[in-house]
Design brief:
- The complex is a heterodimer of chains A (322) and B (248).
- Chain A is an alpha/beta fold.
- Chain A folds into two domains: 4-177, Rossmann fold (3-Layer(aba) Sandwich); 204-321, TPP-binding domain (Rossmann fold, 3-Layer(aba) Sandwich).
- In chain A, 28% of the residues lie in helices and 30% in strands.
- In chain A, helix 2 (74-88) crosses helix 3 and helix 4 (218-228) runs parallel beside helix 8 (306-321).
- Chain A is globular.
- With 248 residues, chain B is an alpha/beta fold.
- Chain B has a single domain (2-202), classed as HUPs (Rossmann fold), CATH 3.40.50.
- Helix content of chain B is 29%, strand content 33%.
- Chain B has six helices and 15 strands.
- Chain B has helices spanning 37-53, 68-77, 93-107, 126-134, 187-195, 234-244; strands spanning 2-6, 9-11, 18-19, 26-27, 33-35, 56-63, 81-86, 111-115, 137-148, 151-158, 161-168, 171-175, 199-202, 210-216, 225-228.
- In chain B, strand 6 (56-63), helix 2 and strand 7 form a beta-alpha-beta unit.
- Chain B starts with a strand and ends with a helix.
- The chains are: A alpha/beta (322), B alpha/beta (248).
- At the A-B interface, helix 2, helix 3, strand 7, strand 9 and strand 10 of A face helix 3, helix 4, strand 9, strand 10 and strand 11 of B.
- Strand 10 (141-147) of chain A pairs antiparallel with strand 14 (210-216) of chain B, so a sheet runs across the interface.
- The structure holds flavin-adenine dinucleotide and adenosine monophosphate (AMP).
- Adenosine monophosphate (AMP) is lined by residues 6-8, 36, 38-39, 42, 60-63, 93, 96, 100, 114-115, 117-118, 121, 123-127 of chain B.
């Protein structure tokens, strides 16, 4: 095997996803330690600003291009990556652990007969080996693992690895036109949820639980979200009750998030909820029950009635914003 | 049509998980095991598909004898047959997928349902891996599934919405919550399931590519600060978020 690392650059609608930069920085870090070379790979139609990958430490970018590849196609994307990994004899392949990365990475692992470690939250190079940490049992336990296969595939949890301060080196982008991509499985349409930020991608999340008492009070959650530029989130209890859409659910059966700030309003902090948000950098809990488990993971807490605290919080934030 | 469903047997999500003495696994004592929650959606979708188009359903599980409980539950819900690929050893996902793929091939199943994720190791890969090994098409994290002849149309959850994705049989679908409402086993179903024989098979030894270095507990969070007990604590909270945490 040649000493090469591939890092997958995810684009949606021609825009590079932020988690890709995090993966690029990690790839550059491994490459420096192992004296490997890195190739960044993007697949799509027109992709804006691919040169910016260079700012995060990887100077070569391959852009596999075809107008049919603007949307995700598992069959086409995995074939292109497989062929390129073979051609370059790459032995380490990194993906962001996004909905696309989670779907694509294992397909490549199977094609390459590679070991695969998903949703890594730490990665270290020790004695020329990569050791990753990943949460299991809904984050109740962490395991350190290493892959013993010749090819190795890793996915990295978004928002955990620091992309660092962007430099000013542009990368060299080479375009490879793909003639007839294998579209046997293909996204034909994207149904966006109306204009709201998604919890999986937001820096700040304001989540409401059963303590919100009913769907009619979620305007408080929305107003606070809007002020903070945050995504509104929800516990399963309120999603199951039909107060909020499933796409907002945080937790084991919802989305795993690690925003910079997570504000839990009237959420008890059941283990399955914590599974989805405990790796957030800062957690604020507002709950009237001082024994609610959410306080065990919260950095800052107010033991009080959300219907008094949220309006006060909205006012205070308006004050500092003006 | 032959429809297979792969099911795993996992600790209840509410179970307290302790690390075993050697630091290389979990201590199973006092842990209740259940059908992997996502696999209930997979079972339900297999049943609904059979009800609509006819055919035969089979549930497959790889693991120790105890996995029979989960297979029994699948039978009670209405699955026709069940196979246990008996294995007591640790297996990584690709080695699980290899064993499942050869069993699925044996049954010539054209449509295979998985859960999106096993809530033990939280990998969410076995469905996609198995599909690749079989050369089947695959759609993961489906919240909607439609079959029209040999055409498959699903919706899957992505950041900020859903995507509509099309493919054709043979296919693997991995089930996400929202796909359906799993039925309860009827009394009659439970009685029938008790009488059914679960076929047991041995499988090739695992050839693992993942070596577990250690199990550890997440670092306990520093006990947080309780800032106050009513709205009067809000200015201090906002000050801390701005000046200490620097997040707003
Ligand atoms: C297999 C499985 C998977 C699951 N997956 C998920 C998941 O993905 N996500 C998830 O969230 N849950 C999940 N759950 C459910 C989880 O166990 C809890 O039931 C759920 O998280 C509870 O939601 P909650 O905190 O909103 O409600 P509750 O537990 O009812 O908590 C409401 C909280 O609001 C507080 N409160 C009430 N009124 C006020 C007020 N006026 N002011 C301040 N505080 C107030 C209460 O003190 C209480 O702590 C799962 C469960 C299972 C079995
Ligand atoms: N040991 C197993 N036996 C049968 N099916 C399994 C097994 N492990 C995982 N699966 C299936 O693969 C899905 C995804 O599991 P995982 O990739 O381990 O998160 C599960 O929801 C099951 O449908």
């Amino acid at each position: 095997m040649a000493n090469k690392i591939l890092v997958f650059i995810e684009q949606r609608n021609g825009q590079i996803k932020k988690a890709s930069y995090e993966a690029v920085r990690v790839a550059a870090g491994i490459a420096a330690k192992l004296s490997y070379q890195v190739e960044a790979v993007a697949i799509g139609d027109e992709i804006e600003n691919l040169e910016s990958i260079g700012n995060y430490g990887v100077s070569n970018v391959k852009h596999f291009k075809n107008s049919e590849l603007i949307n995700y196609s598992p069959s086409a994307y995995s074939k292109i990556l497989f062929d390129f990994a073979k051609e370059t004899e790459s032995s380490i392949i990194l993906f962001p652990n996004t909905s696309l990365g989670k779907d694509l990475a294992p397909r490549l692992a199977a094609k390459l007969d590679a070991g695969i470690a998903m949703d890594c939250t730490a990665l270290e190079v020790q004695n020329n080996e990569i050791i990753v940490t990943r949460p299991i049992y809904a984050g109740k336990v962490l395991i350190d693992v290493k892959l013993t296969s010749a090819s190795k595939v890793f996915t990295l949890r978004p928002n955990v690895f620091n992309p660092g301060i962007p430099g000013d080196t542009k990368s060299e982008v080479s375009i490879v036109n793909i003639n007839s991509p294998d579209l046997s499985t293909k996204v034909t349409e994207i149904k966006k949820s109306e204009g709201k930020l998604d919890v999986a991608e937001a820096e700040i999340i304001v989540s409401g639980g059963r303590g919100m008492k009913g769907p009619e009070h979620f305007n408080l959650v929305e107003e606070l979200s809007q002020l903070l530029g945050a995504a509104p989130g929800a516990s399963r209890a309120v999603v199951d009750a039909g107060w909020r859409p499933h796409g907002e659910q945080v937790g084991q059966t919802g989305k795993t998030v690690s925003p910079t700030l997570y504000i839990a309003l009237g959420i008890s902090g059941a283990i399955q909820h914590l599974a989805g948000m405990r790796s957030s950098k800062y957690i604020v809990a507002i709950n009237k029950d001082k024994d609610a488990p959410i306080f065990q993971v919260a950095d800052y807490g107010i033991v009080g009635d959300i219907f008094e605290v949220i309006p006060a919080l909205i006012e205070e934030i308006k004050k500092i914003k003006s | 049509m032959k429809i297979a469903v792969c099911v795993s047997h996992v600790p209840d999500t509410a179970a307290k998980i302790n690390i075993s003495g050697d630091g290389k696994g979990i201590d199973p004592s006092g842990v209740t095991y259940v059908v992997n929650p996502y696999d209930e959606f997979a079972i339900e979708e297999a049943l609904k598909t059979k009800e609509k188009f006819g055919g035969e359903t089979i549930a497959i599980s790889l693991g120790p004898e105890a996995n029979k409980e989960t297979l029994r539950k699948a039978l009670a819900m209405g699955i026709d047959n069940a196979v246990l690929l008996k294995d007591e050893s640790y297996r990584d996902s690709l080695s699980v997928a290899k064993a499942l793929a050869s069993e699925i091939k044996l049954h010539n199943a054209e449509l295979v349902f998985f859960g999106k994720q096993s809530v033990d190791y939280d990998n969410s890969v076995v469905g996609q891996l198995t599909a690749e090994l079989l050369g089947y098409n695959c759609i993961s994290v489906a919240v909607d599934f439609k079959l029209d002849g040999s055409k498959v149309i699903c919706e899957r959850e992505i950041e900020g919405g859903k995507e509509v994705i099309k493919t054709s049989l043979p296919a693997v679908i991995t089930a996400q919550k929202g796909l359906n409402e799993p039925r309860y086993a009827s009394l009659k179903g439970i009685m029938t399931a008790k009488k059914k024989v679960i076929e047991e098979k041995t499988v090739d030894a695992a050839n693992n590519y993942i070596e577990i270095v250690s199990f550890k507990r997440p670092a306990p969070k520093q006990a947080g600060k309780i800032i106050g007990t009513d709205a009067s604590a809000v200015p201090e909270l906002v000050r801390l978020l701005r000046e200490e945490a620097k997040v707003i």
